């Protein structure tokens, strides 16, 4: 009797488990998976495109939506507040923001709050505020959250943080494409690229890859020299400054004599 009940339980549980399996998966492509920072680098645009692989017919309702998030290296940053004391602006408060991407862009097929619930956002940390984390703020600092908001505001103004709603095109709930503009002031490192498929605000599948951002050529050589041989780098910089100053002086003297 016990064996019969166990067999019946397994037969009933099997379909339930099958329904929980992901039947929609992302197949992603990119116009480039490597960004080279050179001396004349002025930014880059990454085209992301892909398709949805299915094991079952397309579900019409709720419709499929797509969220793409590109994140630069996570680096701590110290945010300071200046106040006027005795007629002089001085740093009066500071908070260490422990978890802040150097670059972050989110592209969506519809307004973000319509295609991803706050619970899913909290779980996957997709929106810009969820990617910023500040812990261990001094007890003397009131409303430490405003320091994290300052990071978001400043980096948004500099083009380092982007919320690109309604920029992902989805065709027939199968093909999607979007583009991410990366500014010139990029930090070197691995850029995490995540793609989320959502239905009714819930994530049904996600995919992750990386974009390699590296300095190359003269920029790379100077960067390595400054880190590995700081003394030589300093002397070289001084020598270049002296030569540049002497050359400018010589040109002015020549022009003056010619006049």
Percentage of residues in helical conformation: 25-40%
Structural class: alpha+beta
Strand order in space, largest sheet = 2-12-11-4-7-8
Order of helices and strands: HEEEEEEEHHHHEEEEEHH
Specify the overall morphology.
Answer: extended
- Overall average pLDDT: 76
Q: Give the termini separation.
A: 113 Å
**Number of β-strand runs:** 12
Strand content: 35-45%
Stretches where pLDDT is under 50 for at least 5 consecutive residues are: 1-21
Rg result: 26 Å
The DSSP helix count reads: 7
Tell me the major beta sheet. Answer: 6 strands, mixed
Describe the fold and architecture.
The chain is α+β, with helices and mostly antiparallel strands and 259 residues long. Helices cover 34% and strands 39% of the residues. It has helices spanning 2-20, 112-115, 118-124, 128-131, 145-157, 217-228, 230-258; strands spanning 24-30, 34-37, 44-54, 64-71, 74-85, 88-101, 104-108, 161-164, 169-171, 175-182, 189-199, 202-215. The strands form 3 sheets. The protein has a 6-stranded mixed sheet with strand order 2-12-11-4-7-8. A 4-stranded antiparallel sheet has the order 1-3-10-9, with no helix packed on it. A two-stranded antiparallel ribbon has the order 5-6. A hairpin with a 2-residue loop joins strand 5 (74-85) and strand 6 (88-101). Helix 6 packs across helix 7 (230-258). The chain is extended, with a radius of gyration of 26 Å. 20% of the residues are buried.
């Amino acid at each position: 009797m016990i064996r019969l009940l166990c067999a019946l339980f397994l037969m009933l549980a099997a379909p339930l488990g099958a329904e929980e399996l992901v039947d929609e998966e992302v197949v992603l492509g990119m116009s480039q998976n490597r960004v080279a920072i050179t001396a004349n680098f002025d930014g880059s645009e990454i085209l992301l495109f892909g398709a949805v692989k299915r094991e079952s017919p397309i579900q019409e309702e709720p419709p499929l939506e797509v969220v793409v998030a590109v994140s630069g290296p996570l680096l701590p940053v110290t945010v300071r507040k200046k106040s006027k004391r005795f007629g002089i602006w001085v740093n009066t408060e500071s908070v260490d923001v422990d978890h802040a991407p150097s670059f972050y862009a989110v592209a969506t097929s519809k307004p973000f709050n319509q295609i991803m619930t706050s619970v899913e956002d909290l779980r996957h940390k997709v929106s810009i505020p969820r990617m910023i984390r500040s812990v261990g703020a001094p007890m003397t600092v009131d409303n430490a959250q405003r320091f994290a908001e300052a990071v978001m505001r400043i980096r948004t103004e500099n083009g380092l943080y982007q919320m690109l709603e309604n920029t992902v095109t989805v065709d027939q709930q199968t093909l999607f494409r979007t583009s991410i503009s990366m500014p010139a002031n990029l930090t070197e490192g691995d850029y995490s690229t995540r793609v989320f498929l959502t239905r009714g605000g819930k994530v049904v599948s996600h995919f992750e890859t990386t974009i390699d951002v590296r300095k190359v050529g003269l920029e790379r050589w100077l960067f390595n020299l400054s880190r590995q041989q700081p003394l030589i780098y300093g002397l070289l910089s001084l020598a270049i400054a002296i030569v540049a100053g002497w050359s400018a002086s010589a040109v002015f003297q020549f022009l003056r004599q010619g006049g």
